[in-house]
Each structure stands twice: as structure tokens, then as C-alpha cells.
Amino acid sequence: MKRSKIKEILSTDSFEYKAKVAGWVRTFRNNQFIALNDGSVLTSLQLVVDFESMDKELIKNITTGAAIIAEGTIVPSQGRGQTHEMKCEKLEVVGTSDPEVYPLQPKRHSMEFLRDIAHLRFRTNTFSAVFRVRSTAAYAIHKFFTEKGFVYLHSPIITGSDAEGAGEMFRVTTLPPQNPPTTEEGAVDYGQDFFGSETNLTVSGQLEAELAALALSDVYTFGPTFRAENSNTTRHLAEFWMIEPEMAFCDLEGDMDLAEEMLKYVIAYVMKNNEEDLIFLENRLLQEEKSKPQHLRSEMNLRDKLAFCVDNDFVRLSYTEAIDILKNCKPNKKKKFQYLIEEWGADLQSEHERFLVEKHFKKPVILIDYPKDIKAFYMRMNDDGKTVRAMDILFPGIGEIVGGSQREERLEILKSRMEEMHIPAEEMSWYLDTRRFGTCEHAGFGLGFGRLVQFITGMGNIRDVIPFPRTPGNAKF
Ligand code: ATP
Ligand code: MN
Q: Is the CB of 469 under 6 A from ligand 1?
């Protein structure tokens, strides 16, 4: 008999048919009821075994964590709490699990503990829900862009360029760490390295996406990016996945419209397709927040918050307007911010972003036209000579989720910006070629996939929405 996934069995109202299932035991009660989970859905299937007729050795091996394959008849459940159950006729324990040493018990474990056993945390309700949602969201992103006629571009992971001009990167080398070859000046001679030059893991696929957009019109990347920054926050990873669309003949307005539409699409798609997971995650969050003081609890439950985000226009305002609000807001005047906002030009910290979104507007916010000095060289200069056509999208509980801009398409202005920011134009000649040959208005953005999944799942720490988080001091598994 062909194995059925539990999701298929639970999704129909047909009964009194034979089926074969396989999965892992969550609990075994009264020597009679097995809760079997195969990860296809949150819900476990209840298998009812006949204790009397069963081999006692076999019964002993039905323990939490054991892998079993079972055959039987699917019937309406007599008990409360489930619709279906399987009257078990054949059962095999294919992988035993010693309950004395199996780390997962049928109880609530802390997120920190589960991070330590990240290889097993897939087997919990919380993490199976998170990773199903993550998968759905990734699919929704591809679906969204494909429907819009974007070309999916694989930008390189090993690069010879540094997109920001100043990013902190992981070096890629095959030179011996002990005695690397050196130049006459005594520096490491990367000319003798694998690629014949210095190479790093990419911090962004944007520059390559720009090259492609200036031929294919609309492209997007969706891949891993790496940052060797020592940011120990709940929103930073050293290895994270980023989505970077880039559009030719598009300005900042079009860029913002696309970002807002995409975020809404993905969130709505997950709400439609992973409802059971979201209900579970919503309750998990409620439980978690019970231990927090009232003012730190969310004002809306998870699904209401997602629906709110889908149904409302994001607020759009300039950096300058945001600074005015922040300068005069209560936490700034009462010196409650860690970084006080004193003047125009200040870089916004997460506390400021979250104030705007969570307290002031109570909606997602898109900030535009940032001072040029706190943004990258490739962003298009405004006529005021002070600000650039940048946009950041700020989300409740997260802060910055998207960073984007209209790109500087004018060769001379771009070159002088690079000079100002000490970016060697010779090494970037390939990038400047797009401005030399058929340049045009274009724009794009980067969406941190982990931060989006954090928002959708309500998980407080980005380490809990990626299977194996890489953070300063940790690359376990
Ligand atoms: P932040 O100020 O939060 O560090 P950033 O300005 O460095 O972000 P960008 O370089 O604009 O971010 O990257 C685009 C997007 O990638 C961000 O909006 C964010 O969603 C995501 N992102 C950036 N750095 C990280 C990281 N270390 N871990 C996870 N996601 C990240
Ligand atoms: Mn950063």
C-alpha cells in the first residue's frame, strides 16, 4: 500500500477506508492512543492500537520520538479533540527512541534550549509550523514575481566586489592560514589565491541584479547573503536569505508600490494556506506574552496584525518629516531613547523606527529621501544635493524589513559620488558600463526573508525562523 501523508487524510471527510501512514510518535497514552506526526500538518493523527492483541515487546518500543509505519482503517474519532483516527491493524517500529535520553519531552521547552538542539527542534509543533510557513512564504515570493513577469536571477555567492563599498565580509580563500604567500611589501599575495584575487561571500546581489535588469527589464534574486558584522540582536544573522528585485524604467514610486504589493501578497498567501499553523503560532505568542508586563504585549493578536497589514495602505513619509516627529516625541524629550535625536542627519536606530511604526502611526511605514551621508553610493541624488532617493520599509516589532532605492543612473554624478565615498571606480568599471551603454532610470530593494518570516510567525528572534542560525560565535550543525 502507498503511504498517505496525514495532511491528505485529515483534509477529506471520507472514512472507512484502509490507509498506511508513517511518522514519529509524539505521545503514547494508556497503552492505546498514539499521537503520530509526520510534519505534513500541525495536527497529529491518533492511532488506536489494541493492547490485548499486540506483541508486548512492540508496545514497549512505542515511545516519544520513535519512527513508526502503520496500516489500518480511517474512522471518525470517538474521542474529543480530533475528527479522524486510525484503527491500527499493522504496526512497525522502524526506528526506536530511548525515552530516557530523548531530549524532547511532551512539554514546553524554552527557545534557548531548543536552539541548542536545533537538529531535533523540527520535531516540535512550534518549529514545524515555522518551517512550513517559511516554505509557503518562499513559494509565494516566487509565485508573485513569476506572475509579474520577473526573471529569477542567480547572483553569485562568491564575489570579487563589495556592494556597499564598506560591508563587513567573510573572506573566501584556499591559501594556507599558517604561511600564506606574500608580496614584496609583505602583504598576503591573493594573486596566488584560488581565484587570483581577493574574494568574499556576497553581502548582496544588487549590483549583479542591476546589470541583468538593464537587459531583462525586471529581475529578482532570492538567495543567501552573508555579513560578518558583530550584531547580536534578535534581527541579525551572519547568513541570511534576501530577495532583491531590480526594475528598469522604474522610479522610487514604482519601487515602493512593488514592495508594498509583494509584502501584502505574501502575507495574504500564507494566511490562506497555513491557517492552522498561524492559529498555533498566535496562541504560542499569547502564552509567551503572558509573562510580559502589559505595555510590552502586542495590541493585536497575530492574525489580526497580519490582516491589518494586508488591508491598510502603508504610511509614506520623508526622512525629514520623520526626524521632526522624533525630535518632538515624548521618549526623545524625556530622554528615554538610548540614542537621542538631536538633529537632521542622524541615522535612525531600531528604537526610532519602532516608535514611528508602533506608537506614532500604528501602521507599516515607508521612509524616503534619506540624507546621502547615511546611505550607499548608488542611490539617486535628489535635486536638493543633500538627500537620496532611498526608501526603508519599517514593520511593527521588527523595524527595517526592506531597504531600497532608485539607483543613480547618471554616469558623472555616480562617479563623483564614488569618489566622495572612496570607492575605486577602476575596480567597478563593469558596474559603470551600465551607465555608459544605454543607461536608464531603475530601482530595486532588498527584503530580508528572515525578518518577513519573523513578522508572519510572530517569533521574537530571527534565530528561530531559520533551521540553523549562523551568528557571532556560533556555526553549530
Ligand atoms: P539593519 O540596519 O537592520 O542592519 P541594513 O540597513 O544593514 O539593515 P540592508 O543592507 O539594506 O540592511 O539589507 C536589506 C535588508 O536585508 C534589510 O532591510 C533587512 O531586512 C535584511 N537584513 C540586513 N542585514 C541583515 C542581517 N544581518 N540578518 C538578517 N537580515 C538582514
Ligand atoms: Mn545592517
A: no
